[in-house]
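Page 42, continued from yesterday. The earlier attempt failed because a stray header line got pasted into the input along with the sequence. Redoing it now with the clean sequence only.
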Amino acid sequence: MHSLHMGKVLAAVIALFISFNDISTADELVVTESGNVGIGTATPSGKLDVQGDIRAGNSNIYFTKTNHTYTAIGDTPGYAAIENAVDYNALMILGRSGTPKGRYVQLWDYLQVMGGMDITGNVGIGTTTPQCPLDVNGNLQYRAGGNKVQMTSTPGFLAYLIDGNLWGVSIWASSRRFKEDIRDLDISSEKIHALNPVAFKWIEERGGKADFGLIAEEVAEIIPELAAYDEEGKPFSVRYELLSVLLLKELKKQKKLNERLSEQLQALKIDNQNFEARLAKLERMLEKKQK
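This time it went through. Structure tokens are written below.
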């Protein structure tokens, strides 16, 4: 059975109390004269004041307002808040303020983003004090999902600043397991010899320093596979790491040529020895006749 108490006065406020336990004297539901509803409290301070857990079951909870929807956790300045900012067309999560990091948000334990992210400010991975747009305190690993790291700069000059010792090992996947249509390299020596090393000076936008190497456009005309191309298909750089393969090919060809020349030289030595032996024999025969 349920009991209904009408007209109970608390602090000069007329209220409606509904109790769902005839034995208990506690006030489970209170509706004050000002329209505040209290659940688990006899003195609700807001339109709905709940002292205890709230469960929605399989239903939804909606917060609506004419401009922004603002949901705060806690009523003390510095607590977290979620704001549906219509002006920014976004869901804003405001972390606690009053810290060296400003508004600070921690997400535990896993965050999965389905789509892109637009971040204004610094991002720290492994550090809570990032000093640049991306500050990583730890190792970086690129897996099969991506194989390109593109760094661009205006006017195009990149600087690598290393605080500490630098060492590294470059590993190129070269297993037969990853290859098909394997055949001998069909690039003539004439093409390799046509590559023209030059000395040059970088334009000011690229640092203005003196350097030497190959010209990508010239390389693309001679050996297209040796050039690297930009997104528009224009020669951008030279794949200098492949030059060693071409040099190895030329070295093997030179080795075979040297072996043939060595065999020919050895044959000439033998012929010369035979000739000298016959000549010596003729000289001895002439000496006998003269006697």
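Notes: The first strand starts at residue 3 and ends at 10.
Reminder to self: strip header lines before submitting.
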